[in-house]
């Protein structure tokens, strides 16, 4: 198949007749499907310039799926979305995609129903190409900020390894990495239910959040919205001790940070940093407030603070 024509098909710029010809070619054999998938993967793997470039994949039918990535580096798409037209077999529509965001990066995607999702560093989201007739379900490992398109007949549900979040149409943030004990859901607008095994545990109101503590789930007020600036590439912290701050930097930059001084580990900080500036920039700015030195072991990917 002509590569230029296949690329135009993915972009949605071919005529209806040309599209049908491509679909017929794709369905002729597994080899053709694999060739199409390879081209699709190359097309979906985008490099972004945060300051000046906002690329967008535009596909032209109701079953089109748009992925937008808002970061300097590429987001790794583990299973890539396919462009499905009305005449492609229905059994392919249930295929799921998983998007994984590496450390120090973030991603924004638009689901088939118009719901917008921002994914934080080291997060993954699994979702179907097409939602079922009565349910919209996605699986999150990590942190995501959701702006859900309202649909009373089709509730939206975020499944995590700890609890599930059920919504009809709202704006909220979920923090739930599989490999940690942390679970937090903060509601900005609308209403959400926190569920476990299909049972409703807590209903949140706007400007409140639920966190998982040693004593179980607790509902608290949202004191400020600076934390949610992560989706704009900003690390924000409010009166956090150095130890908690370093845990956050470990997550965002995929590096181990060891604090050898108990004296400075309890020092508290308030501030904001751009994620793209890097972990060493954050440390150098912190050095202006407290006296410490750090060493970086490149081979073992460890920073030691003394």
Automatic annotation (TrEMBL):
Coiled coil segments of this chain: none
Gene Ontology molecular function: sigma factor antagonist activity
InterPro entries: FecR, FecR_C, Ferrdict_sens_TM
Protein name: FecR family protein
Residue intervals of the Protein FecR C-terminal domain: 235-303
Gene3D superfamilies per the UniProt record, alphabetical: 2.60.120.1440, 3.55.50.30
Pfam families, sorted: FecR, FecR_C
Assigned keywords, A-Z: Membrane, Transmembrane, Transmembrane helix
FecR protein domain sequence ranges: 98-192
Residues that span the membrane, as ranges: 65-87
């Amino acid at each position: 198949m002509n590569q230029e024509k296949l690329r135009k098909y993915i972009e949605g710029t071919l005529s209806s007749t040309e599209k049908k010809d491509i679909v017929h070619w794709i369905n002729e054999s597994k080899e053709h499907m694999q060739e199409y998938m390879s081209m699709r993967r190359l097309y979906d793997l985008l490099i972004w310039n945060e300051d000046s470039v906002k690329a967008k994949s535009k596909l032209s039918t109701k079953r089109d799926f748009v992925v937008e990535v808002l970061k300097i580096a590429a987001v790794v798409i583990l299973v890539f979305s396919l462009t499905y037209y009305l005449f492609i077999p229905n059994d392919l529509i249930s295929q799921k995609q998983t998007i994984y965001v590496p450390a120090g990066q973030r991603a924004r995607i638009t689901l088939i129903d118009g719901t917008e999702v921002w994914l934080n560093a080291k997060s993954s989201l699994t979702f179907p190409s097409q939602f079922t007739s009565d349910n919209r379900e996605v699986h999150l490992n990590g942190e995501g900020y959701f702006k859900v398109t309202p649909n009373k007949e089709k509730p939206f549900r975020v499944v995590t390894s700890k609890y599930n979040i059920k919504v009809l149409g709202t704006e909220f943030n979920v923090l739930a990495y599989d490999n940690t004990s942390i679970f937090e859901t903060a509601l900005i607008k609308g209403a959400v239910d926190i569920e476990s095994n299909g049972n409703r545990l807590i209903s949140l109101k706007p400007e409140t959040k639920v966190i998982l503590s040693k004593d179980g789930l607790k509902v608290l007020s949202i004191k400020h919205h600076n934390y949610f600036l992560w989706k704009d590439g900003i690390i924000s912290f409010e009166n956090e001790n150095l130890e908690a701050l370093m845990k956050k930097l470990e997550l965002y930059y995929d590096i181990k940070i060891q604090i050898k001084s108990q004296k400075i580990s309890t020092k508290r900080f308030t501030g904001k940093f751009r994620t793209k500036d890097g972990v060493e920039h954050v440390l150098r700015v912190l050095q202006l407030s407290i006296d410490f030195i750090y060493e970086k072991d490149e081979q073992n990917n460890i920073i030691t603070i003394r």
